[in-house]
Amino acid sequence: MYAIIETGGKQFRVEEGLELNVQKMDAEAGTKVDLDKILLIGQGEDVKIGAPYVEGAKVSCSIVEHGRDKKIVVFKKRRRKDSQTKQGHRQDYTRIKVEAIQA
Fold it and tell me: Is the pTM of this model over 0.70?
């Protein structure tokens, strides 16, 4: 069984046992979180599509850890102007593990 969830403004295809990085959540590591913004649930040819969300469906997850991604370097140069800027950014993330999908 798989589901398409929405969290942090992004959509992810998840299955039971999958670990993935999502935008940082305000919860401690080791706690359980229920995600209820489920866009689609499918198993084989049986597919439920929400409008916009599937009613009564939820995905149970546990928070594994919090961390920061690799650094992204933003470099801007304006030719012939002797002007350039260099800026770095590291995005915070939360690593979750999908425990169960309930339709």
Answer: yes
